[in-house]
Design goal:
Elements lengths: L7 E9 L2 E5 L4 E4 L2 E9 L3 E10 L5 E11 L7 E4 L6 E5 L2 E9 L3 E8 L2 H13 L7 E3 L2 E11 L4 E11 L2 H12 L9
Antiparallel strand pairs: 1-2, 1-6, 3-4, 4-5, 5-13, 6-12, 7-8, 7-11, 8-9, 9-13, 10-12
């Protein structure tokens, strides 16, 4: 990771048939015959977590992945909202705002925002047990943003993607960087 101050905590979890595996950066885990690895980056604008999947078998496989994103500046006066039209989350707190989004080749992406309290913890436990999300579109106070991705993979197929969080003071700047990240134009020299 770079030396910038951390603004987000992003955690990946692979899920299959009621069993889950927390994904550690720099290590490959194998779940249902699919190798999964994640790498995190801390940048000036926020953080990202890239993931790679590889079906190591000669059979068709399925896998769900959960990504939990916590904005570390989230306080009691923060309002978190799930965007209806896109895969983006918005958190408004004081003079700052944060957005998280995902770039992926998943078959489907579901999203929700759980409050960091007893109710949110109960919903998260049910999500891990059942492999589903409970729609919770808005919350106030501390929260975690949750993505659930469904992957269906052909034999020996590879897929990848990334989850990222952007922190800023002006909504227009955050939206602009989000659009550039989705289109992979934010850092053209790194293509």
């Amino acid at each position: 990771m770079n030396e910038y101050n951390r603004t987000f905590h992003i955690q990946g979890i692979a899920w299959d048939s009621g069993k889950n595996c927390t994904l550690d950066r720099g290590k490959e885990s194998v779940v249902n015959g699919i190798g999964v690895s994640v790498e995190g980056n801390c940048e000036e604008w926020g953080e990202s977590l890239s993931f790679r999947l590889h079906n190591t078998t000669d059979k068709h496989r399925k896998l769900k992945m959960f990504f939990l994103v916590e904005w570390l500046s989230c306080k009691e006066d923060t309002i978190g909202i799930v965007s209806f039209g896109k895969d983006i989350f918005w958190n408004y707190g004081g003079r700052n705002l944060a957005a998280t989004n995902i770039v992926s080749t998943a078959d489907s992406v579901k999203k929700t925002i759980y409050p960091l309290n007893l109710k949110g913890l109960q919903l998260w436990r049910k999500s891990l047990k059942e492999g589903s999300l409970y729609y919770y579109p808005i919350t106030n106070g501390q929260n975690m943003m949750v993505y659930m991705l469904d992957f269906s993979m052909d034999p020996f197929e590879r897929k990848n993607g990334s989850v990222y969080g952007i922190e800023g003071a002006l909504k227009e700047e955050v939206i602009n960087l989000d659009e550039r990240m989705k289109n992979r134009l934010a850092f053209p020299s790194e293509k």
